[in-house]
Known about the structure:
By secondary structure, the protein is an alpha/beta fold. α1 packs parallel to α2 (45-61). Helices cover 33% and strands 23% of the residues. Strands 1, 2, 3, 4, 5, 6, 7, 8 and 9 form a nine-stranded mixed sheet that branches. The two termini are 29 Å apart.
Amino acid sequence: MIRMLNVVAALAAVGLTALFTVDAHAQHYPDQPIRIIVPQGPGGPTDLLARVAGRRLQAASGQNVIVENRGGAGGVIAAKAVGSADPDGYTLLMGNTSVLVLNPILSRTAAYDPTKIFTPVARLAESYQVLVVNASLPVKTVADLVAYAKANPGKLNYASAGIGNTIHLAGELFNHSAGINIVHVPYNSGAEATTAVLGGQVQMTFVNIARLPPLIADGKLRALAVTSPKRLPLLPDTPTMIESGFPDFVVRAFFGIVAPAGTPAPIV
């Protein structure tokens, strides 16, 4: 699997630079700073991608690009803010699977249709998740974790980046598939969720692959399985969830930039 930063570097150079191609209808764009709204707190993969893309945008446009974290309500607040912004190309959303797909389907408070309030700009990356536990937990495999959860009902928690996000989906899929009940604890970002596992406040989470190797190398987290169809080059010794006895367990997230619907085509 290509590392997420490499994907961003490659696609941003092509897709995002096209945002500033001179056109007769957009010769004066951009002439003011551009904001990229991130629907989660700082430190997670969506935030990381926004900052990498922001640097590319700034280099291509010559204008300042401001990355603004606006977490809360599982990304709904940020999505609605961008969806209702002026369609002038100066307010963009660093979207992800949660905000663009899961929230509109699962959240009763979302009340937005991404196909109607957003215009796609660039798809930047996709990534799989890794099931990790605090290294102090006495489990070495997914089978161990399932057995431990069944022997200790209600005593295990898993962290996510908020209700309705990809990590939450993976956690509940795991509960359902394994016939266990590991309690969901939502945080404001993937970084906060990972920090909670590192600190022992919760016992497990699903972590974006791009952030994981240093944490495993430090011995603070233990990777049990990846949610990809095949093993990943970054973690060649870590089995897939499929290999671990869950035949249909594949969870993948995508990330991309969108603008408010109605943003002129020459700008996009």
